[in-house]
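Note to self: the last two entries modelled the partners one at a time, which told us nothing about the interface. This time every component goes in together.
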Amino acid sequence: MSRLYDRVALIGLGLIASSMAHAIRQAGLAGEVAGYDIDAGHRETAREIGLCDVICDSAAEAAQGADLVMLCVPVGAMGAVAEDIAPVLKPGATVSDTGSVKRAVIDAVVPALPDGVHFIAGHPLAGTEQSGPRAGFAALFSGRWCILVPNGAPQAAQDRLAAFWTGMGAHVDWMDADHHDLVLAVTSHTPHLIAYTMVGVADDLGRVTDSEVVKYSAAGFRDFTRIAASDPTMWRDVFLSNKEATLEILGRFTEELFALQRAIRTGDGQQLHDYFTRTRAIRRGIIEAGQDTAAPDFGRGGGTKAGGGNA
Amino acid sequence: MSRLYDRVALIGLGLIASSMAHAIRQAGLAGEVAGYDIDAGHRETAREIGLCDVICDSAAEAAQGADLVMLCVPVGAMGAVAEDIAPVLKPGATVSDTGSVKRAVIDAVVPALPDGVHFIAGHPLAGTEQSGPRAGFAALFSGRWCILVPNGAPQAAQDRLAAFWTGMGAHVDWMDADHHDLVLAVTSHTPHLIAYTMVGVADDLGRVTDSEVVKYSAAGFRDFTRIAASDPTMWRDVFLSNKEATLEILGRFTEELFALQRAIRTGDGQQLHDYFTRTRAIRRGIIEAGQDTAAPDFGRGGGTKAGGGNA
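The predicted structure of the combined assembly is written out below.
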């Protein structure tokens, strides 16, 4: 892979940026990678493990002279970072981001940027429930989708950023910001909120002890706790900045849930059976699309067949 | 491991019974294993793969002369099977089951059994989203909990059944039927209903195509589809027969969900952040209890670090 950018700046050294640092280095995509995190401890850790070529003490220092500045901070912090770095941005530079919401990020970042600097919004659909500069690994994006929003940037800048993500192992798709936000509300944001809620309910229930919840949490619930262990700040910002789509999907979700709840209350076994039969088809589609394997696993990992489903 | 029963009958040759057949054979827990399934195709498959020592053409034939009869059928079919086998049961035999609900099974099975036959209800907390006689594997119960409900059986019968499950690799706990049903409503039944619902909503949404749902379903939603791919008949029966506890937990769930929904609508970031921070603790408890690993995986399996979380 040939070098695509002379200098890349990674702002916010969490799971995504630290994985990018490893992947960029592995594929030789940049001449130099500069990093910055608002947390001094994270900067210290990043220096210790040699995450980037240089770790700077301000976002502007990292962004100065960069051909590509990646904003890898929580969605709610994007606008402030853009204002910080705007005065030092190189003419013709590309600014991009890795936030989970796209419309709100575009609205916050674009007005802060100087003329001649292009913003292309981005969202790699990859991650784990772990965070911080030690959480990253080069293969995080391998075979995963990265959605990019062109936002009127020149074709050459779009092509270069797409090649950059492809170089890190991702498949690239282009999408409108609003459609991205709706799709992600369905496939990610609402499911996360539901998982958080269910884990909270379990914790609250006086008659079932926490140790029982922990001890007997196979399958379904264990997957929920994994989801619900994700970074609180990141997820707070996701829900606040993708409010409309999340509330719309939540409304549909509770409508459906009430219908199933009613079927349980009235003993309508046929309705339940029909519903559960239909949902099997989507799972098959996901396996056929190569987004998961048919191997029984239930989040246990380790590659054995000792899966964890239960009822 | 020494032989615990001369003849074990497995009624219903799905994932659980077929895994038991492998585990019993591997550990030498029974002199003979007889199997029966109501589906002629499943009986044929079981014969082809040599799942049991003998596959019978009726439940009564399988149960005849057995020291242990395991009912591994959907919860709603337990009572009818008990009636079928009652006339041939050996005096002193133990009947048990593997259903996901315990009160309803006890109420359905016990009245059908003759005097001198003991019913000890059971529930191994293990499974995958796959079903049928080919789905089983010997390690399914390894390190997982099996909850047993003594139901007044003699101590010797209880000890023997506990040794049987331990011999298949499980840890055994004894519990009251009603408490079991509440604990499982929290840790398994309600999470499954929620996952089914969310997958159904995604499928219904006209503006997001099924292919987009499939393509961009990393993390949260992919875990949901795995859960929602479980056997429809089994789950229909679970909800119909654990109605009260499920409806109670669903009520609490929607109450909490509405509170978070309101926080999103009003932009109360502090409430969201506090809630999401709290749910992280339960996840840590589950890892510390050895029910899962800290490795980032998100249901992808394969033992690599290429996990699939995203937002």
